[in-house]
Write a structure and sequence with these properties.
Blueprint lengths: L2 H30 L8 H25 L8 H14 L6 H22 L3 H23 L2
Length: 143
């Protein structure tokens, strides 16, 4: 596959996973009873596009040049967290940014498990993540 095409596919996948993570995070905060402060749709799309480009570029570099350096992907995750923290400096705390990253990692792991045919692993990921979120909801509603 051509490098530009590969980067574009990675960018689109990262953008979609970030958008889905934001929607799920908003639903999660509505379930808790707390509102998640989001910017306008255009601003959120721009932030997600920039963050997705960072993720896609980093993934492309790792896949293309250093396939054994998967652990290096923690750096773009931290950069994306920093981008969202700066973009929502007044509205979000550390917990929202951390949950956004966790939601995106969950979506990525679930999709990869389903795409590669590991349905049992996907079910374990889904049930485990739902259990963790249920515990967080129960804990948050107790306050």
């Amino acid at each position: 596959m051509h490098a530009a095409m590969q980067l574009s596919v990675f960018w689109a996948l990262a953008f979609v996973s970030l958008c889905i993570a934001l929607v799920l995070l908003n639903l999660f905060y509505n379930l808790i009873g707390d509102g998640l402060e989001l910017l306008s749709l255009g601003k959120e799309a721009m932030i997600a596009g920039i963050a997705a480009l960072v993720e896609a570029g980093s993934l492309w570099l790792v896949v293309t040049f250093v396939p054994a350096a998967g652990r290096a992907m923690i750096i773009p995750v931290l950069i994306v967290a920093l981008i969202y923290k700066v973009a929502h400096l007044e509205d979000w705390g550390r917990f929202e940014v951390f949950l956004l990253v966790i939601f995106q990692v969950f979506i990525g792991c679930l999709v990869v498990s389903l795409f590669t045919g590991h349905f049992q692993a996907a079910m374990i990921i889904l049930v485990g993540f739902a259990a963790i979120l249920a515990i967080i909801v129960a804990f948050a509603k107790s306050f």
